Amino acid sequence: MNGTIETGGACPLSIGFDHVAKHTRRDLVDWGVKLRAACPVAHTEAHGGFWLVSRHEDIVRIASDVGTFVSKHGVTVPPLNSPVPLVPAQSDAPLHSHYRSALSPFLTAPAVRKHEAKIRRIVSEALDPIVDKGGGDAVADFAAKIPTRVMAAVFGFNDEDAYKFDNQFREVIEAAAGDDGGRQAIAVEAFLSFLRHKLAEGRADSGGENIVSAILRYERDGKTFGEAESLGLLWSTAGGAVETTKQAIVHSIYNLGVNPDVRRRLIEDPLLIQPAVEEVLRLDAPVFGIARRVAKDVRVGDAEMKAGDTVLLVYGWANRDDRVFQYPSDIVLTRRPNRHLAFGYGPHHCVGVHLARMEIQIAMEQVLQRIPDYYLVDPSIDPRVRGGLTWSFDRLPIALP
Q1: Which pLDDT score is estimated for 7?
Q2: pTM greater than 0.85 (yes/no)
């Protein structure tokens, strides 16, 4: 691990840790283990300074206290400088429920089940080239092709626009991780231009039954969404639907690739795939951490937080908290309950949870059915925290014997 933590030292610790720096998987996990033991609420000077919270119980408390820990100032470290409000993620009550209510009818469990047949077809078509060629990149050649098309069905985009959305959104994330302001400005403007075009199409199709049309028609207590709010809803909601689900599918392929005994059990008993999905989400939550701003002075553990401080709730560490999860680094198919935080906690719990779970489970089912003996070409490839938020693989080559 880069740096050491003395368990007998004072807490809160001040450390030089930067979650978006290049870490190996083992290094990043070890930081969480050490901090939970020595100082579960530590402080780092990276990115202007912020608090790191690593224990499950502290994160649950903070995520539930939306009056003290607010989202409207941004949910990433470093901040994603967006020209539109990234709602509902970057909003607080009562606006938060106002925004979510426009989306929720399309993302309930019954609404999502209506898309199951199409999702199965999308996954099958994405897997076909891997089968035909005897392998490929689990990211670009498989996982990236699933949530883009699923999102298209729910949001009212065609497939071509879904892929364009994915490519442009990824460029925004990559640009945000660097120091090139020019690249960031170009990426953001290109993405906004695309979203404005989709809103214009939605206005022309006033009878559409999709999320774009619902955003445009929405009215509650005489309130409608302005242009910036509509753009922000599309940006954050569709972006979440694509990038995080794509990475969850890749993480499932990775985890089954390095756990052959688990893979064998799932092949023998497909009913275990559902709990396997939850365990993969726990071990490798696609959202590694989420930021909050302190609205008023508060004490968490040994940390005295001041109004204006930034706090990073590190889901990726809390999901391996041995106070909550026995054998936290293992896939335990009998884990009940599984109180992982991969979809967040409290009012900001992911609105698209049912859609994401269905996509991940169907992808895992078909991989195990059609290429059960695949292997990872390079198991040493590590994901990284991208855009201050997403636990992502750039590539993960797989092959068939």
Answers
A1: 38
A2: yes
